[in-house]
Amino acid sequence: MSGPRLVRLPEHIVEIVSDAGEGAQKAAIAFAQLCAKAGNGLWTVEIIPSEIQPPPHTTGSASGNRIRLAERSQVTNAGNLANVVLAFNEMALLSRLEAGSLADDVLVLIDDQWATHDNERYQRSYREVLDKFRARGATIVEIPMNAETVRHVEDAERGKNMFAVGLLCALYSKDLSVLQSIIRSIFEKKSRDVIEAAVKLAGAGYQYGIAHFEECFEIRPVPTDVSKVAMNGNTALALGAVSAGFELCSMYPITPATSASHALSEIFEDFGGFVHQAEDEIAAIGVALGASYAGKTALTITSGPGMALKTEFQGLAVMTETPLVIINVQRGGPSTGLPTKIEQSDLLHAIYGAPGDAPKVVVAPSTIEECFYILSVARKVAEEFRMLVIVLSDANLATGQQLFDRPDVSGTPQRPPLDLSPVPLGALPYDWDPTTGLSQRLIPGQPGGMGVTTSLNHDRDGKACYDSERNQRGHTMRSRKLAALQKSLTPPSVHGAPEGDLLLVGWGSTRGAIEEAVDMARDAGLAVSSLNIQFLSPLPPGLHEIFAGFRQITTVELNYSDDWEDPLITKENRRYGQLAWMLRAATLLDIDSYAKVPGRPYMPVEIFDEIKRILGDQPGTGSAAEPLLATKGAY
Amino acid sequence: MSSLAELCVIESGASEAHSLDDYESEKPRWCKGCGDHGVLVALQRALRKNNLEPEEVVSVSGIGCSSRLPHYLNTYGFHGIHGRALPIATGVRLSRPELPVIVVMGDGDCFSIGGNHWLHAIRYNINAVVLVLDNEVYALTKMQVSPTTPDGWKTKTTPRGTYLQPMNPLSVVMGMTNVSFLAQTATWLPAHLDETIEKAWDHHGLSFVRILQRCPVFMPQAFGEGGLNFPVVFLENEDGIPVHPLLLKRGQTQAHNHRDINEAQRVAVSVDPAPMGLLYQNPDVPAYEEIRWGRQDRPDHPTFIERLDSVLDRYTVS
Description:
The structure holds two protein chains of two kinds. Chain A is an alpha/beta fold. Chain A has three domains: 5-218, Pyruvate-ferredoxin Oxidoreductase, domain 3 (3-Layer(aba) Sandwich), CATH 3.40.920; 229-405, Thiamin diphosphate (ThDP)-binding fold, Pyr/PP domains (Rossmann fold); 494-634, Rossmann fold. Chain A is 37% helix and 20% strand. Chain A is built from 20 helices and 23 strands. In chain A, the strands form four sheets. Chain A has an eight-stranded mixed β-sheet, sandwiched between helices. A seven-stranded mixed β-sheet of chain A has the order 11-10-12-13-15-14-21, with helices on both faces. Residues 619-627 and 629-635 of chain A have low confidence and may be disordered. Chain B is globular, with a radius of gyration of 21 Å. Chain B has a single domain (2-287), classed as Rossmann fold, CATH 3.40.50.970. Mean pLDDT of chain B is 93; it is low at 1-14. Chain B starts with a helix and ends with a helix. In chain B, β5 and β6 (144-145) form a beta hairpin. Classes of the chains: A alpha/beta, B alpha/beta. At the A-B interface, α1, β9, α8, α10 and α12 of A face β2, α4, α6 and α12 of B.
């Protein structure tokens, strides 16, 4: 007996979609764990319906996951067009076409129950959608998922997803017994009958696949001795917060940030921490600030609209120099916008969003692994500089899963007890070092340190004052800390050659897609490099020198910019991407931006196309054309 | 009135380790005749009576005339932003439950811009003394209508008279789940004010005290010109706020059981005459920070690392 033909691949992208509630998400989680356990690098993206109870069998009801898996352990983004889609119905399938996610020659695995369904409307739309896919060059494999599932359980809706994950296990030549043990652990809390049915269905799906697929894929992981973890960015932030020694997280529910607080709530009390769900976003930051004032290490977690509500408190944290960390898991805006989708539109708000001049530190992790480590950095900066540190994550990092080296936490420093030693006579609450603006904060309970911490302008003694000289001094000291921090940073490193025709500059989670696009372009002979900026306030040193190596510089961001082709848009009124605004102001260079709001991550291929467009506009590889930087010599 | 004030102030202690000076900071910059002065002194007396080290106490305020109080009290103080004293105080209590906390707010601060925090703070029932210095007007911003400004009174934003009935904060407090202490007093009754603050200090849980006080500049006519012509009734109970015989000039007494929530709610809705004294007390409502600390485990460092490792195990795939 000959099984399916085995095709070896370096990587693949598969999407699993069902109606909301049919369990494609669970199937995808099991499949992603299966790939991760095998050692495949991966990146997953949740496909989330925007409504809670969308009408079934519609494109709006599609729910599931995209999984990019690879031989190499490092996968940095969700990739390009999907190669395989497993759909529970044709409308879920169609939704992925409408989202622009699928390759023309995608392999479609679909439940065939709709071909003969009692509802003629379903029959018709099933035929129409499949015809559409065939016309585009897709390969369709119709599978009696429903019929096979009901052979094992009464209600096909409760089990079809396990049959589906069995199919994928066969399609990607994975080990069924590993899958079945994963399923057992996922359903750990369910009854024995439920677990056994799920295990049996996965086996049935697997056997069906082996018996019927003509072709199966093999994506052989590169062997590694390094222990790996797989988690999403919100979980990484939560575990990172524990590891960094945070003691209190005060939050208010908001998508897509809340799951970070969920992950923290699960464990924090075992580590001497609290998650406090406050009555509103304002109280959430207020409680964190109060805890920090009292000497504890506190953070608050939110998303854009919550950030807006927290701005007055941000000003208070800056004015009183109370260390505080805010995580903003960005989503689409303005207003309620696209709550579940990615955008990077809060950069300028993070930096400037507070009344008055309020210097803040803003950092952005660019990978899920960085989500774990960034909170140690944030805490250190917040406490040593007595500053507000904003961590800008986004919906892509929040819900995507990535494989990365297991953090070694054995060296986690012990939280020192609060220093409540008496304050030396004459010590001041804002004893600013005139060069750096740094000062030692006093903690309630320290004898001799009594005094008011005020939101009013104050001088070194902490007392309110209103004269120009002391107002100017307070501002200068708070601002100087930003410069002192900047001096301690190292220049970011360029991905690719240090010189070339084009430098793409990004921040946050677009890094993986940008670097992959740069690699594609360099393979195609284009002189392109990229730069990811992690510290956005203050900007890191060395940008002028890096920029001087390139003829053109463009930021790549997931926020809005006017298209040059739009009516009325001129050089005078064009609105640029947010990082571009900052870099233009900071460097006086004519930095352009490729900034859009698609509500999904960029695909590397889109960025590659943009690179070709930019360099196609201005052919010549570096020698003939004038350098962009008229002032190049000045650096 | 001043003679009454002098008579009623009970100077008891030669035994205290601290003098009132120990709790004095900057010279208060409130207007002459403002009731805030009296509250400050009453607080200093309570601190002295409880023999507290100044560094052990945290006073938190919002924005408004009364919110300047932490500047004048020699403890650790946090003068924050408008309406947000209670979340800051909650953060302090949650992280440092060994520190006694005083919260000082004005009527606009607490009942209006900080309304949501007010309701939820009562529900949290953090262990803190919460004072609202209610002068029925926005005074720092120079006379706008507040939630408690009497109906029809003229302010700069209601020059033809207010449009709405004033809010009754007492009935709001008594309507909240987990209310554990509610008292009302007035700055023109200094002995009563002292006793009320002491009672609040001794209570375990959130002691909510509304202090009526006249703003001599923008609302001098309030409270019958500062109590001269303001109908009150003193709530009497042997465990309540003592009613000094001299107070009887100001109003009648009424027997009241402050342990009975229904009775307290009935009294809370009556505004004329204004009930003075302890409306409600239930010392058995658990304080939020104690609930949280009770459920929290504080592992030693090796256990901390061990636990973090075992959490990572859950996410480890190879």
